[in-house]
Design a protein that fits this description.
two-stranded antiparallel sheet, 5 helices, Methane Monooxygenase Hydroxylase, Chain G, domain 1, 2 strands, mainly alpha, elongated
Length: about 170
């Protein structure tokens, strides 16, 4: 490679690194928002939960084109790979370490984000279960359902013997 080609390649690598660092920053910014979601689910603060979910959407909107952008950088770098790990392996050795470090930070951050998202889902499912139980109790006796031989539900209809002809 000539010096100008090498400088262009290094510039693209630096841009790619900055892009990935920006994506990592989005996930790091998302972490306190998800922790806050867990805090607002508990006291049933619907308006705060709505605001929190909007904040999450805004952050995640910034990374919506991640796959396309990574593919664009791979194309510019003339690297054919399916994952970031395999892409890093095909980079010059002197640049691999910083990308692996970034990838390690990604893994730790994503693991923490996943942990808190799972906790939020568990709390929401528990709350929904409680709501279902309360609604069932308030509803009282459930309607009896009748089924056809093919297991399709039959609507509760009034039998013909109760009809009057006028």
């Amino acid at each position: 490679m000539t010096d100008t080609n090498n400088l262009g390649f290094i510039k693209i690598l630096d841009d790619f690194y900055e892009y990935l660092f920006g994506i990592l920053k989005v996930y790091e910014d998302l972490l306190p928002v998800i922790k806050e979601e867990l805090n607002v689910i508990g006291p049933d603060d619907i308006s705060s939960l709505d605001e929190n979910l909007k904040a999450q959407q805004a952050l995640l909107y910034r990374i919506k084109n991640f796959d396309r952008d990574v593919a664009g950088y791979a194309s510019k770098l003339n690297i054919k790979a399916d994952t970031l790990s395999s892409m890093i392996l095909k980079m010059p050795e002197e640049h691999q370490l910083r990308f692996y470090e970034l990838l390690g930070n990604f893994a730790a951050t994503i693991q923490e984000v996943s942990f808190y998202k799972d906790k939020c889902q568990e709390v929401l499912q528990t709350k929904l279960y409680g709501i279902d139980k309360t609604l069932a109790r308030l509803k009282g006796v459930t309607e009896n359902k009748t089924y056809e031989r093919d297991a399709s539900e039959v609507k509760n209809t009034i039998p013909n013997s109760f009809e009057t002809t006028i």
